[in-house]
TrEMBL record:
Residues 106-177 form the Aminoglycoside phosphotransferase domain. SUPFAM superfamilies: Protein kinase-like (PK-like). This is Aminoglycoside phosphotransferase domain-containing protein. It comes from the Bacteria. The lineage of its organism: Bacteria, Bacillati, Actinomycetota, Actinomycetes, Micrococcales. Gene3D superfamilies: 3.90.1200.10. Pfam families: APH. InterPro entries: Aminoglycoside_PTrfase, Kinase-like_dom_sf.
Length: 240
């Protein structure tokens, strides 16, 4: 087997690259997520990795998506309005392609939220996006997906890409509300929630994420993650 190269940035799983594949810890949710990836790819949404089953160690295997991931330090392309529009359009394509996916024995890693309009990615952010040749070309790390409202994904995407996040402050330029308008317009106003509704959901999303992060920090013995939880609460308190 080709040597394993550990990929940084993950706070939930150990992820490695092996040749042109990515391997990560599998769980009861993995068959459902792989079926979901196959479902949306069959509908032409090829920005998500192809599922390739399990390896001899029981890890899930996914196709490698080449390009640059928007981790830390945050690359300049994250703030390009072209990329923001790409993110909105890609979120819409993903959401629309998941409508109708409802296997009878589905197991989800994240809670199902009502109204279950689509299958949410649940972690749509630049650190789960792949950029190449000036465009957004991939969405990765789909293992936290679960059914929920479109606004749940859009709220977190806006939090990370519109300038409301403490550890990803936007550079000088359009204000967060202006960036949000660009994002929602690209997503499509026929399905996008109103900006005020996105902010209400963003606050709910951040408080939920803070509680989850505190619990995950305790369960995994990683006390540094409590700092992340505190940041989410501060950001929630600052929202307009």
């Amino acid at each position: 087997m080709t040597d394993e190269v550990e990929l940084g940035g993950g706070n939930v799983n150990r992820v490695v690259r092996v040749g042109d594949t990515v391997r990560r810890t599998a769980g009861p949710w993995t068959p459902t997520v792989h079926a979901l990836l196959a479902w949306v790819r069959a509908q032409g949404v090829d920005v998500v990795p192809a599922p390739l089953g399990l390896d001899a160690d029981g890890r899930e295997v996914l196709a490698w998506v080449p390009g640059e991931v928007g981790g830390w330090p945050v690359p300049a392309w994250v703030w390009d309005l072209t990329v923001l529009r790409d993110a909105g359009r890609t979120a819409r394509r993903w959401h629309d392609a998941t409508v109708g996916f409802a296997p009878p024995a589905a197991v989800w890693r994240s809670p199902v939220r009502e109204p279950a309009e689509v299958v949410c990615h649940n972690d749509l952010a630049p650190y789960n996006m792949v950029h190449a040749d000036g465009r957004l070309v991939g969405i990765i790390d789909v293992d936290m997906a679960s059914p929920g409202p479109r606004a749940w994904d859009l709220a977190y995407l806006a939090y990370r890409m519109c300038g409301w996040c403490e550890d990803m402050p936007a550079p000088p330029g359009p204000a967060p509300a202006e960036r949000l308008a660009v994002l929602l317009d690209a997503y499509g106003t026929d399905r996008a929630p109103e900006p005020a509704a996105v902010l209400v959901t963003m606050r709910e999303r951040l408080l939920d994420l803070a509680a989850w992060t505190d619990a995950h920090a305790d369960a995994t013995g990683r006390p540094e993650l409590h700092d992340h939880a505190a940041m989410y609460r501060r950001d929630a308190s600052r929202l307009p």
